[in-house]
Amino acid sequence: MIKKLALAASVSLLMVPAAQAGLLSKWDELTVKEGVLDSCPGVTLEQQADSFFKDPDWSAGTATDGRKLVNVSGTFTYMERPVRGMLQMWVQGEEFSVEALEINGQLQPEIMIDALLDKMCEAAQSQQPKEVKGNAQARADLPFVGKRRFNFSGGSGTAEFITIQSNGHTVVESCGSECSIDFEGPFTNPLKTQYGIYRVEAKRIFELDEKGRSKTCQKELGEPRDTRCSVELYVAQ
What we know:
The chain is an alpha+beta fold. It contains four helices and 14 strands. It has helices at residues 23-33, 45-52, 110-126, 130-133; strands spanning 57-62, 68-78, 81-92, 95-103, 106-107, 146-150, 159-164, 169-175, 179-186, 191-192, 197-200, 204-208, 230-232, 234-235. The strands form three sheets. A five-stranded antiparallel sheet has the order 1-2-3-4-5, covered by helices on one side. Strand 3 (81-92) and strand 4 form a beta hairpin.
């Protein structure tokens, strides 16, 4: 569960120099960008930032006490004048919490964090298609609606994502230090991307050969050779 924590010391003092930034920091940044706050279901924090800030800028690093932090800053209008705000998140595994807010370099109270998050959510929801805002009934042939994470490559620091909207619009992404789009278009099953063919179910995704048949592979020592190549789908936070 994602929740807001009590305010910490000044945001600008929490981040250590950018020399520690790297693949893990990029992964932390992606975790926050693709995350969904309890207060704004169905909308990622990146969508909120893009909708609310004029020029959102993301950064990730480590605090002096070892915590992993991600900042997003940008310009917005407050009391009828442009200001510069910075929102800070504390990353804990695959979850994160909103920790602090600065406006023009001044630390803000928790009530301001709540107010800003409400405005960010309103801005993002106002830009969503009507069928999304209205929770229209999903196509009957869709295995799920939302975003799922999977990993055929194995290891840490890499992942693949599949996002299916209720109207069937589908995006498949591959992510490492950066993300690239492998497929974008209407959902079909099987689903052919530029790197492979997949059969998508509610909780698993299967890799298929060129004829649409399940591939076979031996993933672990001792497993039968006819093990189907498939991995579990996890709800992306």
